[in-house]
Amino acid sequence: MFENMPCDLCASFQPENGDEWRDAARRYAVRRGQAIGDIAGTDSWCASLATGILRIDASQGAPPRTVGLIFPGQIVAHPSDADPCGTAVVAVTRSDICLHARDDLRQVTERHPGVRRLLLRSAFQTLAETRRWMLVISRPRARERVAAFLVSVAGRFPTSDHDTFDLALSRGRIGELLGLSLETVSRQIHALAKAGLIALPGRRHVKLLNRSGLGAVAGMTFRHPSGAVA
Amino acid sequence: MFENMPCDLCASFQPENGDEWRDAARRYAVRRGQAIGDIAGTDSWCASLATGILRIDASQGAPPRTVGLIFPGQIVAHPSDADPCGTAVVAVTRSDICLHARDDLRQVTERHPGVRRLLLRSAFQTLAETRRWMLVISRPRARERVAAFLVSVAGRFPTSDHDTFDLALSRGRIGELLGLSLETVSRQIHALAKAGLIALPGRRHVKLLNRSGLGAVAGMTFRHPSGAVA
DNA sequence: CGGTACATTGACTGTCATCAAGCTACGTGG
DNA sequence: CCACGTAGCTTGATGACAGTCAATGTACCG
Prior knowledge:
Chain A is of the alpha+beta class and 230 residues long.
């Protein structure tokens, strides 16, 4: 079923059907915990996420810390020359990606204006999203940050699931993302549950009971642009 | 003296000297506090900063908060379609920018591969830099954040000034950037001075006495890529 | 000379990180 | 099937730290 699912990047080629593009793009199934860099090699690469969730780890400093998430439909590019200090892109869950090597991508972007516009657009959108995240994690109250995180993740899933979704991240990793200790994350999640805003059917499963109320606690509204670039 | 100073974007045109580029680029002097958007109009735009410092304000929510800074040599692009919720780019100090309207830029990027590579590169680098900032402001200790801020700003200035530089930002705005109250910023700056790591010749002037020591307090090393995109 | 914006300093309170101890779920191997 | 180990989660106690409120101080501008 995955083999025929088009990714954003590939979809932008339908009208033209460039041969070099189809040759360049390779579909990969990524194991949980596997780094995309290990698949792509040391060179720069660019990928479109079909299914699963990826995380961006800042590899500088020990231990490495997660600084961002990538959801299906987003594009993730890793230009090794522009980011020498290093971020690694790792699969949080088993994921399916559409991977392109750097040289292939350059050739294609030369010839296809639509692709490079998509890439640039994706980069801008990811940047805007990252800046919104900065607003979240610069808030003093842990409650607001956790609520904002939940609202953000919930926004990635269709509402048809009865507003129930999987967090995919451990408490510790959520803490890294929000600048909180894992204990504080756990406490705040349960506090939101006690407040009746969410329910916790499982350890990593969350059901939204009061979406707007949760948004009010978060103190902001989220929009999710389609792009994501590391 | 400013009129002839080349910006990164313009410099990438020297070999080709495209006419349409020279026509599209306009040099502007921006007053302190003035928004670039007011100059460029409602459309998307792209600018290269020659002198001065700009700040990126997240205009969503009241009051607007500063989420990033732009230093000379960086490119700042504002794609209005990709960022509908809104960030405004405002001059912190009097600045000189090289401004391009969106339509002109699109034409130029179609014809000049170097320019679009520069833009994409700039976007990636700014994204990487923003993610490093997230690492800074997610740190629990205010001391580390303030130290990191000082190291970062200091890195923008040549070391020949005896390591003395102007902060350009008020305590309050530094606090917004770091997710701290203005009082905490003030206290931490003075604490760093008492610790002998910096000196404070003036209210907004800082002299680095122990650069590596400050970096140690900050807990990380900074590199400054040349790109910046809003 | 007064006004405004910014900065400093102090006192106090609330919150969060830290340490520590159990607890749950899950996978492995006996 | 169960014992066991590990990783993740929860919960509690405590102290440090940063936010808040408040007052004063300082530069800069007209």
